Structures
1.
Amino acid sequence: MSVQFFEGVEKLLEIWFSTNVNNNHNKKETSQQQQQQQQQQKLEIESKHDLRIIPRQKWESLLKIVRCEIISFCRNDSVDAYVLSESSMFVSKRRLILKTCGTTTPLQCLEPLLDLVESYTGFDKVENLFYSRKNYKRPELQIAPHRAFEEEVTLLDTFFPGKYLNQTTMQAGRIRNAKIVTTSLISSDGEAYCLGSEESECWYLYTLNREAAPSSAPQPTGQQESTDDAPPTTTTTTTMNEREPDQTLEIMMTQLDPEVMSIFTRHVCSSAEEATRKSGIDQLLPNMLIDDFLFEPCGYSMNGVSKNGSYMTIHITPEPDFSYVSFESNVAAASYGDVIERVLRCFKPGKFVVSIFANKQSVAAEGPRELEQSDDCLGGLRRDYVRDDAQYCRFKNYDLS
Ligand code: PUT
């Protein structure tokens, strides 16, 4: 009997929102009392800026466009975590993570998503965006715009247009570190990268790579002249907690150990909890509240959330012909060697791709450099694997390996 193919590789979209606020006040004449009132107003408005106030039914409608649905939910004070029929969604105050596998179409929901977010939360600015994925095993089965990275980039560029380029720059192409591809006449705030080799294993990234505004004072982005009857309007970009530490570790594994994979079938385990315990997933990161799901006849997803605001998520396609496991977490660590080693010992992949993002404020700030420069991050497993490739990128706010 032939087993129907399933694409485990996920499309991963992470968006950080903020606001462009119009403050109508006369700068020259602002008294101390007025300043206090303005400060108070600002605090009140900011308390409404929270993605978690968007009703579940609105998320459900949005996810229909993506071609998936919510199958489980858990939350804590920091994050709402949804297990989806195809992977996961995490919603926190101003960060959305949408991770979807199979033939889902997350970029098709971008426009309604931005509208939904603005109408409920007042967030009218995408402060940063990361769209990434590994190369698919069967790209020809995907639905537009996900059949090729160039197509995905062309769509993303329409949301983040920049200045017109001259002919010479245009011919330099859009995707860096890779085959040169020209997708558009218009330059963009976004930048497209391919790490690794498109001929074998690679990982694509689109990010806005914008400069973070200083944390203390909002950055003026536009000012009108003052007249007697019309007070000047100062447009400021409010970026709440723009300097908060942030880091993400992702491990994408293929050619997994069949015995380990058998745990994630209904044949071997009768519940998700059993699979979580038997595999050792519950021991990977401490203090996580786990919401897990075991599919019929096989396949597994879990979200973990911890009180300090960090999350983890694991998705497993166990079929031997196209086995795939992904691990992702924003847990903060000065070095990720131990976590990576635990994950590899748990799933025993034949091959894997690791990515680490960290900003300067993160305790993991040195993580990307360390990953690129040494095999120590594999701990006791460093002799069991051969590294094919390593690339390091410095963006404006993040380092990446
Ligand atoms: N998946 C992108 C992660 C970026 C840093 N949080």
2.
Amino acid sequence: KSGIEWNPSRERLIVVSNRLPFVLKRDDLTGKLIRKSSAGGLVTAVAPVVVDCGGRWVGWTGDCSLTVDDEIPEASEEDTTPTAGLLKHQVVPVYLNQQQFDSYYNGCCNGTLWPLFHSMSDRAVYSSEYWQDYIQVNQLFADKTLEAIEFSKMDGPDIVPLIWIHDYHLTLMPSILRQALNEKNSNALLGFFLHIPFPPWDIFRLLPWDDEILLGLLGCDMIGFHIEDYCINFLDCCHRRLGCRIDRKNLLVEYGNRIVKIAALPIGIPFDRFQRMAEEAPRLVKEKRQKIILGVDRLDYTKGLVHRLKAFERFLEKHPEHIEEVIFIQIAVPSRTDVKEYQELKEEMDQVIGRINGRFSTANWSPIRYIYGCVSQAELAAYYRDAFIAMVTPLRDGMNLVAKEFVACQIEEPGVLILSPFAGAGETMQEALLINPYKIDDVAELICSALEMSRDEREVRMKNLRRREKVNNVDAWAQAFLKAIRSTTSMNPESDSK
Ligand code: ADP
Ligand code: G6P
């Protein structure tokens, strides 16, 4: 149970995201569709909220061969993921064809917006063909959501649909939906949460469709970002690109006759759930005498994986006394495998890991254990619990939940978190060892300091980190979002009371 305050007689929650919280796969033997869990910060955070509020989830099935004739299955009995409680009538599937998948998802979302919003503008591609498909798919999601809104209204005239749209795939959807609702004289609260950074104006303006994205988002009543820096960037872009009046102190944007509320709402994790899993998980790594240095990431170039491996290599070079004493376990889940940049990263990882293992392995020991795949949360919890150091060193990251999951699972010998200040998590997790991931030599030395840190210091740091994440957990985040969006009805009364 999430403990979210929810008024089922008045409110209906409709979550919209590019992906449903699971992907559908056809079972090779039976030919039946089954749910497979999908990794990523968004799903981990939002699924328990929808389950608890009895909400609906509009999203893509994750497979282009599926059509309306394919029935969504219920979760299997063995499914213990947080999405297992999501019943099939709560799922509103969106079907994308191969061309939309290539152009909207691989092209615009992950070839243009993802790198640009992470301030890696040299990797961004700009294609008007991709952009046209992005518009078209946003329209498709808006149509599906409208159907879900109409459906929820059948429960009574006083029902307020609360639409919570997620992430960079759907930035145009709010204004499309706003217009359609206005035409129907229908009410709903529209909120948006961006799970990735919002870039500064100097970067954002490179996008040929920068104004369209801002106008799309301004269809909302409220927009949430992880940290205040992203809020300020957004306000700045609205002011400089659209000439909007902005209030930096109260985080408001005025556009046309409406006021849009902006809020910094750092996402959290289901802390108690991770702690419980860590208490129950069996020990996975038998060699207790070896200290585990752990990395857990989607295989994404923003995560700084190659820099991290090079820092570990430098550490072994400079500190041979630690050889055979440590083992680096990198768990990397394949991601966006049709995008060239991701394919290149996979090759580079294989090559760098091969080189380091070839260079330093002894008869009984290899420095890096590389797990390329999705691992269950229960198994992850065991790795987090047993790790001596977690390396969370992205080059840029909206928040990063792995850092938080690690501290939630640290229930035995306290370990050390090495964290990049370029992740949103770096803003609040100040007791971590913060380091610029581009400084390879310094990261190498920091690994050494972490290994040699006194137990007392590790304990104090970890205690403080854990205390904060336990309170600022995912429920607190969802609660804060819902509270903030409800409060906007006094600013734009037409949203709630048509
Ligand atoms: P992002 O949202 O960019 O993927 P986050 O660190 O915020 O990054 O969230 C990643 C989520 O995906 C976490 O909940 C983490 O547990 C999960 N995850 C990452 N790697 C794996 C993996 N190899 N197997 C299973 N889950 C993973
Ligand atoms: C990040 C994004 C999510 C996305 C996830 C996995 O967390 O913010 O929107 O779902 O990565 O990526 P994918 O492309 O597989 O959905």
3.
Amino acid sequence: MAAREQWGTRAGFIMAAVGSAIGLGNIWRFPATAFENGGGAFFVPYLFALLTAGIPLLIMEFTMGHKYRSAAPRTYSKMNKNVEWIGWWAVAVAFVISTYYPVIIAWSLSYTVFSFNLSWGADTEAFLFNDYLQLADPGQFGGMTIGVLIPLILVWAIALGILFKGVQRGIELANRIFIPTLVVIFLIICIRAVTLPGAAEGLQAFFEPDFGALTQGGVWVAAYGQIFFSLSIAFAIMITYSSYLPKKSDITNNAFITGFSNSSFELLAGIGVFSALGFMAQQLDVGVEEVVAGGVGLAFVVFPQIISEFPALSGLFGVLFFLSLALAGLSSLISISETYIKGLQEKFGWTRGKAVGIGGGAAALCSLIFATRGGLNFLDAADYFINQFGVALLGLVEVVLIAWVLRKLPEFQQHANAISDIRLGGWWKVCLGVITPIVLGYMMIDLFLQNILKQFDTENGNYAGYTDGFIFASGWAVALAALAAGIIMSLIRWKGLSK
Ligand code: LEU
């Protein structure tokens, strides 16, 4: 058996981990989530979630990867062979994310091209939904959208090409190029954005605290959801990446660097986005809250509008913005796919090439669903359900299992302390063993109740107003399928490395 692949340098590992963390979540998810959840007051639950759950979990996953030197399924099975299914469940959740995530990167590539002559015109909403996505009704496929399909193929070709090259010559090298480029581009965007007329009003809307929001459970749920998704924790990624760390590596310090870099970028994105929104609001002579929109709407409806209004060099600004979205997304997509590529390699003894071909090929094939005319609706439902009942639920299962069932925290603490600059104290165990399970446990009960009760609530209805049938087929079924796939994979015999 060939020696395990390893990162070439410490900086290479950090770039890759930061590259995974910084993604679409930072640029189009964070600013809108913060604004919807109390603006400046969101920082309180956000920082609380970062410090008590995000960074402690990141340290834990880095320790697991480093200690067991395996992708998630084998890591879990080495802890206890009865829990291998949790590792596969995490991998299956990553697989689902990797089927819709590249579609958003594909849109970004298209919009990079559209930026050259601002081809979205005056009505950017109609352009996105009617001209570009040609959106069909929820539940309908309505045939492929060629405009999405072509960049999607390109995204997969780049990602799988890099993954095929392996850890050092593929993932590490790509991130060493992507991440510094991304930071430079994004700084240019932010500097331009904060110097636009109206930027101050935008920033005020972003930072103005609404402390009443702190008493709402939903704000805390949003903060935890954002931290988990954004730090790529709880779904196999960071375990896989840290399994390539050389024996002599720092764990705790690397986790702090990764966590703080990600949050700094998130803050930067918030500043850039809200400055631009302030500018837009001033142009239209309305309040900032009237131009803000969540998710897809923010990046692909509001931003094109802002870009068109730019005093000068609109096209260039558009190219930079959408290119940064694509770059941030690509380095994250690579990390999501590496979870199943390495998992399959270890389980079946496949070469990297075979695992990239089969695993990556399967994900690419499934992603075609989201390139159909009904794609956006499927994407929206899958994203919501897999994040709540995949990522957040897995986070809870993971901490409860490790802290209380297997009681591994003292052993992990020793392992990390033996090789790290920063020593972990009792606070780390309190965060993972007490605070995180309580907050996440409460959140999950509330979420289940809300989503189940919604099926009977004729007034407020389902998530985003979708029908029961659609929510079941595109939401619940996807989240359940990931769990089922995890269990089935764990029942198959190991043909590669021993478990
Ligand atoms: N952390 C990434 C982001 O913020 C997402 C993850 C699924 C790789 O976009």
4.
Amino acid sequence: MPTPEQPRILATQQDGVLLLGLNHPPLNTLDHALRQQLYAALQTAALDPSVQAIVLHGAGGNFSAGADIREFGQPRQPPWAGDVALLIEASAKPVVAALQGVALGGGLELALAAHARIGTAGARLGLPEVKLGLLPGGGGTQRLPRLIGATAALPLILEGRDVSGDAALALGLLDAVCDEATLLDAAVRKARALGDDAAVSRPRADGEAGRQAGLAAIAVQRERLAAKPHSLPAQRLLLDCIQAALEQPLEAGLQFERQAFLQCVASPEHRGLAHAFFAEKQAGKSPAGQARPRAVQQAGVVGGGTMGAGIAVAMLNAGLDVVLIERDAASLQAGLDRINSVYQRQVDSGKLDAAARAQRLSRLSAATDYAALSAADLVVEAVFEDMDVKAQVFAELDRVCRPGAILATNTSYLDINRIARGISRPQDVIGLHFFSPANVMKLLEIVVPEQVADDVVATSFALARRLRKVPVRAGVCDGFIGNRILYVYREAANFMMEDGASPYQIDQALESFGYAMGPFRTADLTGGDIGWATRKRKAATRPPEARYVRVADRLCERGWFGQKTGRGYYLYPERGQRGRQDPEVLAVIEAERAERGIEARPFKDEEIVRRYMAALVNEAAKVLEDGIALRPADIDTALVNGYGFPRWRGGPMKYADDVGLPAILADLESYAREDAGFWAPSELLRRLVREGSTFGKLNQQH
Ligand code: 3H9
């Protein structure tokens, strides 16, 4: 409960207009205390003859980020956000919502119940509940379609997308837009102007034609969801709710929505998505304590290949000035062409307008001389993955960059400690491991070498936020967090393939588990040559007794690198099409088995998933044990955002807790009877099982 010094509602009066400020910083989430106090304030206002109208606003720059997600795991306490919304809607005195900062979820639902809405142009309005496996439970599925029409409301609710104040005005979601300084005055004027007309019931935005269009749009979405291997219960239920909004009176629709919301709150998908949300928040906090980030405005990118170009675009999009460096004029032009073509595709698809592209490109410059980096605050090296090449680049950077500039490498596996030790300022060297395409993929592994300064780590986390990336701190080892774990569970898939499961069955089993693509389909997409290079690199350090499956090498030797060569594990007769099974690949696998004397055995899909997950979780536990990842939530965040792990399962560590760590350990122990080296259970996993603990409890220790 709030102390008397920290009321959740700040009430002031301005000439008969009562201003009620939501006051639960920083985001004014609608926790129980806030709902209770707001409900009471509205009841009092109804009876107070000095109050003629009410303005609802948010203190501290935000209206509200919606319900307090942490409360969903606890017993529900009235009043609900929906009850408060009903009171607002039924108020005989006009209520105007003044929106700035975020107005999301339950926050926007309160505003939807008001008699008018005024917002700032930059406000972010939306119903993002679906991203948490929920649906708007405070009347949003009923009031938004009534206000702006079902066809416009449907994508906003189904995708959980937010819109700016300007866009909301165009949709009819806001009645007016103004700047922050005048927001409250404008809302007060509006509340007075509404006078006694406020309580008059509002007509639906849709006529009969709109209603039919809405029903048709719902039918299309139902078909789309039915065709997906996995959709959230919330996605199906919210369509039912919007349909109810078109077919039933408000009161019945609200009842329907409340039941659907309760179903979503109880779903494992909600628990998984809420876990992923909080895991990201935890992972995103800089481990460098109070260290203050260095200022970054000018960035350099060395190397204009696919990765470097993507990094440059990400930085330009975030408002940074970028200098691109390449070794010669032709390579530089190729790099610039790549950047231009990324933007061209965005303009062609309508995601970006030509003026915004021009603005971003105006901050890009290019050079073949490293001296152009002399004023850079941060440089990211994205050249060929070779220690000697990288060492040369860092020697150049050491020579030309100003003192205090941050020197980052985008290597995926090289020893960053060695790179740092090779120059005169190891404290400024850090790993920024982007994922391809770097302007799209969310994950950013921030790899911290031994000598790095705290403020360099803090700057990297601040930069990630600016680039809208999801950062995870990683220690230095071959593959850091994600690629190190990936290598092991891919091996488990290879073993199963050699032992009798086809790559197609393995993909299908893991796609049913929730991956958008199974491991072999993914290998075809990324290019078989990439994995081939990794395997060649690791060959020297692979223990001679370790099992090694040669199928992938056999395909690469034939030039079958996947989609880009028209065949890999699958056949791709036409570009962009989903691959077809290839009998010749099955013959290659059969030949390998014959050579090794392996008799194929049948696999059930369930066993495929269990082995894959046991390998993944076991290596993840070793990554924790070695201090490469700080906490299980960081691994969940990395695997969900960079490796396609189904988000609605929360992440592999959450999955392991859900299945039960003793069950995972028992699987490992039984598989270890076949191959004691590969399946050796991690010490951490054994300890957690002994202590009856979980990865979730480990998270709480941080
Ligand atoms: C809902 O409304 C259901 C209703 O329909 C029905 C009701 C019946 N709850 O992200 P940040 C925490 S469902 C609890 O770093 P930003 C966050 O964990 C809700 N906590 O700030 C962090 O805590 P900590 C629908 C929340 O400026 C701190 O606040 N709403 C919530 O980068 C700062 O967060 C949503 O889904 C919450 N709702 O981004 C919005 N929101 O410091 C979810 C945040 O301890 N929130 N926290 O780590 C967001 O998307 C972003 O937080 C937001 C601000 C964009 C708002």
